[in-house]
Amino acid sequence: TSKPAPPSKKGRNGKPVVIIKGVPLGESELKKLAKELKAKCGVGGSLENGQILIQGDKRDVLLPLLEKKGF
Q1: By three-state DSSP, how is residue 68 classified?
Q2: Is there a contact between 2 and 21 (Cβ–Cβ < 8 Å)?
Q3: Tens digits of per-residue pLDDT, 35-50?
Q4: If exposure means fewest CB atoms within 10 Å of the residue's CB, which of 13, 22, 41, 47 is most exposed?
């Protein structure tokens, strides 16, 4: 399997958003992961087209969390 891309930053309406893509999980597992990541970061976010979007520039928090989970 391919490894997910590292979290990237993108602006949405002038606000930073971290995009996590390439995670090899099904839709329901992605929803659970997104919910967990949002809770750990204390921010909102969403799931769009198999990509997890987390509000704010939380790459420094997200990267260790994803690595700990083996992604």
Answers
A1: helix
A2: no
A3: 999 999 999 999 999 9
A4: 13
Interhelix angle for 59-68 vs 27-41, to 10°?
130
| Model confidence, pTM | 0.80
From edge to edge, which strands make up the β-sheet containing 8-12? 8-12, 15-20, 51-55, 45-48
Helices marked H in the chain: 27-41, 59-68
Lookup result for tokens 């309406």: 13
Phi, psi of 54 (to 5 degrees): -120, 130
User: How many whole angstroms separate alpha carbon 16 and alpha carbon 23?
Assistant: 21
- Give the number of other CB atoms < 10 A from CB of residue 22: 13
Instruction: Using the structure block, give the residue that is written with the tokens 């987390």.
Output: 54
